[in-house]
TrEMBL record:
GO cellular component, one term: cytosol
Bilayer-spanning residue ranges: none
Ranges of residues in domain NADPH-dependent FMN reductase-like: 4-159
One Pfam short name: FMN_red
Protein name: NAD(P)H-dependent FMN reductase
Family annotation (InterPro entries): Flavoprotein-like_sf, FMN_Rdtase-like_dom, NAD(P)H-dep_reductase
Length: 194
């Protein structure tokens, strides 16, 4: 089997982020399954809040262009999002908004959201595991950005108690869900390596 390149990032830049921990657990799973994994932090891609005047004056900021290039060089993308007020954090939405601007890819325009496959997951300390954030993120990616998102997803509830010392998920059901996400993501990403 070919080894697809998978990019993983969390929609939180907080030190000790539970979503960053879930992203790290997914990276392990993906690497064990022989994917070539790149994990990035949005902290390394600082962006102003999107404003059309700013874009007209200065164009798309360099960090958004770098992110676009990262997406373009991978076959699969896993986004692990926190839930803020029943949706996704402004950080993640703002990042996707900047990346969706045509100038972000240079000319000719190549969408960083098409011709690759996406997976989404979430972690919260509450009992619903960020399911509402996932319900918000899926249509943004699919309807707004034209992405293909696999149906498998993990909404990790009570995440502060969910990780063992080695960073793996303690609950068997959650671990199984994460494995289904990473396995399907790899399967679908392989198609784009052909
Ligand atoms: C502005 C804000 C809104 C939040 N809204 C929700 C929410 O709707 N549902 C939920 O389960 N947790 C909510 N939380 C709690 C987050 O899930 C929690 O802070 C989590 O640790 C954030 O993810 P992180 O650890 O990856 O940074 C909210 C937190 C903040 C700061």
């Amino acid at each position: 089997m070919r080894h697809p390149r998978i990019l993983v990032f969390a929609g939180s830049t907080r030190g000790g982020s539970i979503n960053a921990r879930l992203a790290a657990a997914a990276v392990k799973e993906l690497a064990l399954a022989d994917a070539e994994v790149t994990r990035i932090s949005l902290a390394d891609y600082p962006l102003p809040i999107y404003n059309g005047d700013l874009e007209d004056e200065h164009g798309v900021p360099e960090p958004a262009k770098r992110l676009v290039r990262h997406f373009l060089s991978h076959h699969g993308i896993l986004v692990v999002t926190p839930e803020y007020n029943a949706s996704i954090p402004a950080l993640l939405k703002n990042t996707l908004d900047w990346m969706s601007r045509r100038g972000a890819a240079g000319q000719p325009y190549e969408s960083p959201f098409r011709n690759r496959v996406f997976a989404i997951s979430a972690a919260t300390n509450g009992q619903f595991g960020g399911i509402r954030a996932l319900m918000a993120l899926r249509p943004i990616l699919e309807l707004g950005l034209g992405a293909t998102v696999i149906p498998e997803q993990l909404a990790l509830a009570r995440a502060e108690n969910g990780f063992g010392e080695n960073g793996s998920l303690l609950d068997e059901h959650d671990a199984g869900s994460l494995r289904r996400v990473t396995t399907r993501l790899i399967e679908e990403a392989v198609r784009y390596t052909l």
